[in-house]
Amino acid sequence: MTTILGVPAQALSGQLLLGLINGSFYAMLSLGLSVIFGMLGIVNMVHGALYMVGAFTAWMMLTYLGISYWGALLIAPLVVGVLGMVIERVFLRYLYEVDHLYGLLLTFGLTLVLESMFRYNYGASGLPYPIPAALRGGNDLGFVYLPTYRGWVVAMSLAVCFGTWYLIERTRLGSYLRAATENAILVEAFGINVPRMIALTYGLGVALAGLAGVMAAPIYQVSPTMGSNLVIVVFAVVVIGGLGSIMGSIVTGICLGLLEGLTKVFYPAASNVAIFIAMAIVLIVKPAGLFGREP
User: Fold this and answer.
1) Among the four 107, 122, 224, 245, which has the fewest Cβ within 10 Å?
2) Is 292 helix (H, G, I), strand (E, B) or coil?
3) Separation CA 156–CA 215 (nearest Å)
4) 52 within 8 A of 226, measured Cβ to Cβ
């Protein structure tokens, strides 16, 4: 059996695959956080809860309405995005001119409310969500067995992440979004509805979390705490990549997922803290993050 540094090559490949899958979710979630913080200055603690809402929306659509995974993949992010815009218009729009701490506290409170609602109605244990029939099975690549659904998750996540980057950084709509958050008065002078643009920005950010929740549902059980278990790691990814850096979130999310997988192979005891150790090292060397700009 082939070994690498004393570890069977197949075991190493398997853990790297798991790390790549986790990194894909880290990238999608941290991307939404970066969009919201970079453009609105809100530390969006409710992001993990909205990821959970996306997963539960897919589960309820299948259970109560018979709508398949493919329908949920389109509808659930829209539902979460609309919920996000309601949150932004009802609560967050009053906090843009005050300290970031107020936004953090408010969104943390909303997290507790959403988690409690779903825990009360569905309990704390996880609910299974089946893998769609078209994505069942897998392929033996020789060095690792790749389940079809997990390969789909990685490919879809990368497509969504780089598509969002292109939308924000390379299109006219993206330039309007950036301008609306940097100089609202000037943008309004050109006849653009700035409050609507800001609401759309927040809705886009949380819709990415909802989409990640739908994609995670067949892999992880759907539960009220699935977002809170992940959001702290995602915040670490955002900090390492650089607050507000979209490309930083994508690259860092993938790389840290792989780092986590490697740590599980060579030093399993440190796998739960590897990302936070990396965060501490990066902040010592480059306080603004790997892709962040120095103030």
Assistant:
1) 122
2) coil
3) 9
4) yes
pLDDT score of 32: 86
C-alpha of 117 from chain center: 22
For the chain, how many helices (H) and strands (E)?
A: 11, 4
Q: What is the dihedral of CA 59, 218, 131, 204, to 10 degrees?
A: 70
Rounded Cα gap, residues 295 and 293, in angstroms: 6
Residue 31 predicted with pLDDT over 70: yes
| 63, 125 contact by CB (below 8 A) | no
pLDDT in tens, 238-291: 889 887 788 888 899 999 998 888 888 788 878 778 889 999 999 999 888 888
- CA triple 157-76-64, angle to 5 deg: 130
Whole-number pLDDT of residue 170: 86
First-to-last alpha carbon distance for the chain, in angstroms, is: 52
Nearest residue to 246 (alpha-carbon basis) of 198, 290, 184: 290
Q: Where are the beta strands (DSSP E) in 51-170?
A: 138-140, 145-147
Candidates 45, 168, 179, 180; CA nearest to 100 is 45
HEC readout, 266-279: HCHHHCCCHHHHHH
Predicted structure pTM score: 0.91
3-state SS, residue 66: coil
Cβ proximity of 91 and 85 under 8 Å: no
Number of Cβ within a 10 Å radius of residue 188: 14
CA-wise closest residue to 218 among 151, 132, 148: 132
Looking at this protein, which amino acid is placed at residue 268?
P
